[in-house]
């Protein structure tokens, strides 16, 4: 039961990521809405990818899923370039998370096998095991034959290179998740706007409204859920 249970836990995280970013889409405008939309689609994709009943069907249509995530990746590149042109190279990181997240989703999608097809990206090599043990759609190439990029990744060197890439992406998401929590605790995510002295005095005794459904909280929930689920799935696929 470990495999299906973990799969359903990842489904819950993916749905939470999608829900949190859909909420953020309703609260923000401009390019921030694009970022929220991209992360919402990633969360939904992870939920479908991890759910035992739909994992194999996800792999069957992996080309279409990969195309969607690749489009978001290109949009993230455009976002980063736009911020860099307007604010300098130090703003190049804006949109970078969308680029890395979308690229990770493309790689994980290509590593999924379908109901009758082999994965385009084989990580199992000659070991006969494809990570994500216990979850449908992540079977070895030997069980389905060779397809797409499987032959290119079939050598031990190629498999090791792709596994290192997956491990590096998993480490990125763990670090990103920790930095998101740290920024939220220190109020560096825009959650503590400056208040004028007169305005502060005038609203000192005003009734406080619940601040749970705010953009910073929705962003934090989405980033923590995405970081945890992405890192888990990447490590399982590279195992």
TrEMBL record:
<feature type="transmembrane region" description="Helical">
    <location>
        <begin position="36"/>
        <end position="58"/>
    </location>
</feature>
<protein>
    <recommendedName>
        <fullName>DUF5134 domain-containing protein</fullName>
    </recommendedName>
</protein>
<feature type="transmembrane region" description="Helical">
    <location>
        <begin position="64"/>
        <end position="85"/>
    </location>
</feature>
<feature type="transmembrane region" description="Helical">
    <location>
        <begin position="97"/>
        <end position="115"/>
    </location>
</feature>
<keyword id="KW-0812">Transmembrane</keyword>
<feature type="transmembrane region" description="Helical">
    <location>
        <begin position="164"/>
        <end position="183"/>
    </location>
</feature>
<keyword id="KW-1133">Transmembrane helix</keyword>
<keyword id="KW-0472">Membrane</keyword>
<feature type="transmembrane region" description="Helical">
    <location>
        <begin position="6"/>
        <end position="24"/>
    </location>
</feature>
<dbReference type="Pfam" id="PF17197">
    <property type="entry name" value="DUF5134"/>
</dbReference>
<dbReference type="InterPro" id="IPR033458">
    <property type="entry name" value="DUF5134"/>
</dbReference>
